[in-house]
Predict the structure.
Amino acid sequence: MSSPTLLSIPTAAEELTGKRPSPPTCWRWVHRGRNGIKLRAVFVMGAWRTTREDFLKFVEACSAVKRQAQDVSTSMADEQLAAAGIL
Protein backbone atom coordinates (compact mmCIF):
# COMPACT_ATOMS: atom_id res chain seq x y z
CA MET A 1 0.00 0.00 0.00
CA SER A 2 1.53 3.32 -1.02
CA SER A 3 1.13 6.45 1.03
CA PRO A 4 -0.16 9.68 -0.54
CA THR A 5 2.48 12.02 -1.91
CA LEU A 6 3.09 15.03 0.30
CA LEU A 7 3.59 18.33 -1.50
CA SER A 8 4.40 21.77 -0.22
CA ILE A 9 1.20 23.78 -0.01
CA PRO A 10 2.34 26.28 -2.67
CA THR A 11 3.15 23.40 -5.03
CA ALA A 12 -0.22 21.69 -4.45
CA ALA A 13 -2.01 24.99 -5.01
CA GLU A 14 -0.06 25.74 -8.17
CA GLU A 15 -0.76 22.29 -9.62
CA LEU A 16 -4.50 22.62 -9.06
CA THR A 17 -5.10 26.34 -9.61
CA GLY A 18 -2.15 27.61 -11.62
CA LYS A 19 -1.38 30.16 -8.91
CA ARG A 20 1.22 29.97 -6.16
CA PRO A 21 0.05 31.42 -2.82
CA SER A 22 2.34 33.35 -0.51
CA PRO A 23 3.78 31.69 2.60
CA PRO A 24 1.53 33.74 4.94
CA THR A 25 -1.53 32.60 2.99
CA CYS A 26 -0.47 28.95 3.32
CA TRP A 27 0.09 29.39 7.05
CA ARG A 28 -3.34 31.03 7.41
CA TRP A 29 -5.10 28.20 5.53
CA VAL A 30 -3.59 25.64 7.92
CA HIS A 31 -3.97 27.55 11.21
CA ARG A 32 -7.00 29.81 10.81
CA GLY A 33 -8.66 28.36 7.76
CA ARG A 34 -10.83 30.08 5.22
CA ASN A 35 -14.57 30.46 5.69
CA GLY A 36 -14.27 28.23 8.76
CA ILE A 37 -12.48 25.44 6.89
CA LYS A 38 -8.86 24.51 7.62
CA LEU A 39 -6.47 22.88 5.19
CA ARG A 40 -5.34 19.47 6.42
CA ALA A 41 -1.54 19.50 6.49
CA VAL A 42 1.49 18.17 8.34
CA PHE A 43 4.73 19.92 9.25
CA VAL A 44 7.57 17.89 7.76
CA MET A 45 11.21 18.90 7.36
CA GLY A 46 10.60 22.56 8.06
CA ALA A 47 7.57 23.10 5.82
CA TRP A 48 3.82 22.56 5.86
CA ARG A 49 2.81 19.84 3.42
CA THR A 50 -0.48 18.46 2.15
CA THR A 51 -1.72 16.01 -0.45
CA ARG A 52 -3.41 16.84 -3.74
CA GLU A 53 -6.55 15.20 -2.41
CA ASP A 54 -6.61 17.24 0.80
CA PHE A 55 -5.95 20.46 -1.08
CA LEU A 56 -8.76 19.67 -3.53
CA LYS A 57 -11.14 18.92 -0.64
CA PHE A 58 -10.18 22.26 0.94
CA VAL A 59 -10.86 24.17 -2.28
CA GLU A 60 -14.16 22.38 -2.86
CA ALA A 61 -15.32 23.00 0.72
CA CYS A 62 -14.36 26.69 0.55
CA SER A 63 -16.17 27.01 -2.77
CA ALA A 64 -19.30 25.35 -1.37
CA VAL A 65 -19.38 27.77 1.58
CA LYS A 66 -18.90 30.72 -0.78
CA ARG A 67 -21.72 29.52 -3.08
CA GLN A 68 -24.03 29.02 -0.11
CA ALA A 69 -23.29 32.54 1.16
CA GLN A 70 -23.98 33.98 -2.30
CA ASP A 71 -27.29 32.09 -2.51
CA VAL A 72 -28.37 33.44 0.89
CA SER A 73 -27.30 36.95 -0.09
CA THR A 74 -29.20 36.78 -3.38
CA SER A 75 -32.38 35.49 -1.75
CA MET A 76 -32.21 38.19 0.93
CA ALA A 77 -31.80 40.87 -1.73
CA ASP A 78 -34.76 39.43 -3.68
CA GLU A 79 -36.90 39.52 -0.52
CA GLN A 80 -35.95 43.12 0.18
CA LEU A 81 -36.69 44.17 -3.40
CA ALA A 82 -40.04 42.36 -3.35
CA ALA A 83 -40.95 44.02 -0.03
CA ALA A 84 -40.14 47.39 -1.58
CA GLY A 85 -42.37 46.57 -4.55
CA ILE A 86 -39.49 46.55 -7.02
CA LEU A 87 -39.73 42.85 -7.91
User: Anything to note?
Assistant: The radius of gyration is 18 Å. The mean pLDDT is 85.
